[in-house]
Design goal:
By secondary structure, the chain is of the alpha+beta class. The chain folds into two domains: 115 residues, no CATH class; 62 residues, DNA Binding (I), subunit A (Orthogonal Bundle). It is built from eight helices and nine strands. The radius of gyration is 21 Å and the shape is elongated.
Length: 211
């Protein structure tokens, strides 16, 4: 294939045979699954779904007007002989594993959950300018958990020190909770490009980070 790397690296949502979201892959991997008959394209159009194998998806892509006004929402890969749309969602045909129900507790996910906003002063900072704060300090028995960790700027962290927000006279903007799905995925859904993922993620617990 002759294609721009950005198109082949595009994110594609992967569903298992039971139509449950299990991970995000890139277009290169998605096309490999399609060509080997291991997956099918799920096209979402105004609330309706149509399924396509690789051949029918290539045929559909060959006549862009069939995509209507949605054609510009797709990324396109040009091969030697034809041009094909990058699918947004694919469904595995022989994969029954259920998605894990735990969201990884890590720095990236906490920053994403809090939107890079310091949970004390409310300002937005670059990731390099943020820290994680234990609401109940570890020196007082606080644990590293979704409910006890928040995004915090350096200045507010220094002001709070080894105290609870109440002890430091600081007001918490929002009480932290454990997200039901990967918060990075939630941020991505703000883009129309990923709007077709929403129906499959509303009831899914997410465990895989976007890369």
């Amino acid at each position: 294939m002759i294609a721009h790397a950005t198109a082949l690296d595009a994110n594609v949502l992967v569903l298992n045979k039971l139509w449950m979201a299990i991970r995000v892959t890139n277009a290169r991997r998605a096309f490999s699954l399609l060509c080997r008959g291991l997956a099918e394209v799920i096209r979402v159009d105004d609330g309706s779904y149509t399924c396509h194998d690789f051949e029918s998806w290539a045929d559909l892509s060959a006549v862009r007007p069939q995509f209507g006004q949605n054609a510009h929402d797709y990324q396109w890969v040009r091969t030697v002989h034809f041009e094909i749309a990058v699918p947004k969602v694919v469904r595995l045909l022989g994969y029954d594993r259920l998605p894990r129900q735990d969201v990884k507790l890590n720095r990236r996910n906490i920053f994403a959950r809090d939107g890079n906003h310091c949970q004390f002063c409310g300002q937005t900072f670059a990731t390099s300018e943020l820290t994680l704060d234990h609401l109940m300090p570890r020196s007082q028995g606080g644990q590293s958990s979704w409910e006890n960790l928040v995004c915090c700027c350096v200045a507010c962290n220094a002001r709070k020190g080894g105290r609870t927000p109440e002890q430091a006279g600081m007001k918490l903007i929002r009480r932290p909770v454990k997200p039901k799905r990967n918060p990075v995925i939630t941020l991505r859904l703000g883009s129309e490009q990923y709007a077709s993922w929403q129906p499959f993620l509303d009831n899914a617990y997410w465990s895989v980070e976007l890369r």
